[in-house]
Amino acid sequence: MNGPCFGSLLAGAVLWLWPVVAIGQPIFGHAESIEATVANADLVFVGTLLDFDLLEGPEGFEARFLVEETLKVPIGECYEKLSVVLREPQAVLGAWKGEERRLLVAVRDESRVPASIIDLEDERLSLLTADFTLLRDRDDVLQAARETVSRMPSNVKRIHTFRREVPREVIARTRWEEYDGVTVSVPVDDRLEQWAREAICSEELPRRLEAVRALRYFRSDETIALLKPLLDDPGWAILHHAQENEGREVRRYLVRAEAYRALKAWGVDVRRPKIEETIEVHSINPVR
Predict the structure, then answer these.
(1) Beta carbons within 10 angstroms of residue 151's beta carbon
(2) Which sign, positive or negative, has the C-alpha torsion 261, 264, 270, 274?
(3) How far apart are CA 273 and CA 255, in angstroms?
(4) Which of 9, 5, 1 has its CA nearest to residue 238?
(5) How confident is the model at residue 110, as a pLDDT?
(6) What per-residue confidence (pLDDT) applies to 275?
(7) What is the 3-state secondary structure (H, E, C) of 175-190?
(8) pTM, entire model
(9) Whole-angstrom Cα distance, residue 179 to residue 30?
């Protein structure tokens, strides 16, 4: 698949920016997979909101939780009740307050400011996993969170994350449906590596490009061997349209550029491929 099907370079680049402010409906969106949320939190627990008070200093509320289950805690710690600073609107906290409202809370660092609060009783509950499974059931969400904790080594506090573009069919009839492009943060782990190794063989240019970017995290002789043939990848996107560039269309070979960048960063001695190409277009329609 070549440039006209992929769109312009600008469109591809904007996918990596968040938030994007636009007039009218949002264009691009970003979500965090449940695995990324849990893996990069210091404390993850399930609990109910007992009460909350307006803070005197920093903006927000001091919320007191009754802890039902701790999924991830600092070594040697145990909690029955916890105080956490929340910055959600008071009306939201009021709706959460009560014994019947179970919340999954992920807290980062010692500030006790949550990275994420998931209302497990929300009828519209919808979360994405790293493999783009859409979770709508609270038991599935908790299972995914527990599995993430069980996979992490005890001496690892943070992990890198990588943004992948979510297929449109995955987010149909969800809160992300209004966006034209949605990315999700996924952990940089063996599952991402396996996906990327398979995706570089895709016929779709965006998938190959995304896969090469992911493989930059996984330097090995095998990965080097996989990337070298991509220095001749045929996929391109239009950098400058002929109608706007005096009849000269400038194409950029995106996968070649990413593969070359990765290999050079690893110190691999490879030739520099043709990354840009100018095509003379003799018959063009003027821009109106």
Answers:
(1) 14
(2) positive
(3) 11
(4) 9
(5) 62
(6) 97
(7) CCCCCCEEEEEEECCH
(8) 0.80
(9) 9
CA distance 34 to 22: 27
Judge contact between 49 and 93, C-beta under 8 A: yes
Are the CB atoms for 254 and 2 separated by under 8 Å?
no
Per-residue pLDDT, 21: 32
> Hunting for tokens 């990069």 — which residue is that?
40
Nearest to 164 by CA among 191, 127, 131: 131
State both tokens at 186: 């996924």
Burial 58-93 (b: 16+ CB within 10 A, else e): eeebbbebebeebbbeeeeeeeeebebbbebeeeeb
Specify whether the CB–CB gap between 128 and 175 falls below 8 A.
no
Given CATH 2.40.50.120, say whether it is the number of domain 33-157. Answer: yes
Output the DSSP codes for 13-57. HHTT-SS---SSS--EEEEE-HHHHHHT-SEEEEEEEEEEEE-SS
The Cα-based distances of 127 to 32, 116, 193 in angstroms read 8, 12, 22
Q: Rounded to whole angstroms, how far apart are CA atoms 134 and 41?
A: 21
pLDDT < 70 regions, the chain:
1-27, 57-58, 110-112, 282-288
Domain boundaries, the chain: 33-157
Please tell me whether residue 72 adopts helix, strand or coil conformation. Answer: strand
Sign of the C-alpha dihedral computed for residues 215, 220, 226 and 227 taken in this order:
positive
Q: Are 45 and 51 in contact (CB under 8 A)?
A: no
41: tokens are 């939190």
